[in-house]
UniProtKB/TrEMBL annotation:
Residues in Nucleoside phosphorylase domain copies: 36-310
Family (UniProt): Belongs to the PNP/MTAP phosphorylase family.
GO biological process, one term: nucleoside metabolic process
Protein name in the entry: Purine nucleoside phosphorylase
Length: 313
């Protein structure tokens, strides 16, 4: 084992022990090894509201090795509790970490490895994303069946560097990244609830951010087969799968991406039009406020579905 691996294992163990100590002091020993890790995406932190019984909140600042979430809508804490009639023990990451915040992939995925070291076997990752598929509308949900990792294809990969062989192999398969059984359980739960919200199943495309995609990039993603696009989830999924965790991903579609080419300056000159005249019907822009707003609008349905889904685990 090289020094880098040894150092990383030590950091993970120190963080795990700090979490276990807090749970022990709180007297909730049943929460020491939760059934699932739930990552709450932008605008979806309300998932933590469905926890039942006594909960234990641990701010990231109190966990050695954890970085601070800096994005609006991401509180930055672990919240331990139980979900559903079966009182399934879970831990929620209320606020995730992103590469665009300036953290490297090792820092972004560190909480996932800590969760794996605690014996957690399943991970549920939620996010807010833009709808690339032209049939997707704001407020729809998308169960992730596969992903396109654009940074990874370009060489920026969360498993780059020394392999932590204690967790998984050097070359892990990703063809089964999003567990079929978990997806089936989710759709069964939705069917029983009878919720009137469109739910798709499709391919999530990961881009680093923090800028939203250009119209040309959106057209490229559509050509590649992506159904939605966002700035998270894939690094955590890859590291979780490397550690042998079963994964489920859910995207809230907050907007339809803008894919119409920008106005042409050459056309403006030929028609004698000003920039303002050319832009009057094409000045729509995506914003983070829009993401949070759609998350708030969908939160009640998402919470109900998640409670029913997690209750089956």
């Amino acid at each position: 084992m090289c020094f880098k691996e040894s150092e990383e294992y030590n950091k993970i163990n120190v963080a795990k022990q700090a979490i276990l100590n807090t749970i022990t002091v709180a007297g909730e020993l049943a929460l020491i090894s939760p059934k699932a890790l739930i990552i709450c995406g932008s605008g979806l932190g309300g998932i933590a509201k469905i926890l039942k019984g006594k909960t234990i909140k641990i701010p990231y600042a109190d966990i050695p090795g954890f970085c601070q979430s800096t994005v609006p809508g991401h509180i930055g804490c672990l919240l331990f509790g139980r979900i559903g009639e079966n009182m399934v023990p879970v831990v929620c990451m209320v606020g995730r970490l992103h590469y665009y915040e300036g953290y490297n992939f090792e820092q972004v995925t560190f909480p996932v490895r800590v969760a794996a070291s605690m014996g957690i076997k399943e991970m549920i990752a939620t996010n807010a994303s833009g709808g690339v598929n032209e049939t997707y509308k704001a407020g729809d949900l998308m169960v992730i069946s596969d992903h396109i990792n654009i940074p990874g294809l370009a060489g920026s990969h969360p498993l780059r560097g020394s392999n932590l062989s204690h967790f998984g192999p050097r070359f892990p398969a990703m063809s089964d990244a999003y567990d079929l059984e978990l997806r089936i359980l989710f759709f069964k739960a939705v069917r029983k609830l009878g919720i009137n919200r469109t739910i798709h199943e499709g391919i999530y495309t990961y881009c680093c951010g923090p800028s939203f995609e250009t119209t040309a990039e959106c057209r490229m993603i559509r050509m590649l087969g992506g159904d939605s696009v966002g700035m998270s989830t894939v690094p955590e999924i890859i590291v979780a799968r490397h550690a042998g965790m079963r994964c489920f991903g859910l995207s809230l579609i907050t907007n339809s991406v803008l894919s119409t080419p920008p106005p042409s300056a050459k056309e403006a000159i030929s028609k004698g039009l000003t920039a303002m005249e050319m832009l009057k019907n094409g000045d729509e822009k995506t914003s983070h406020a829009e993401v949070l707003r759609e998350g708030q609008n969908a939160s009640d349905d998402v919470n109900i579905i998640m409670e029913a889904f997690v209750n089956t685990l």
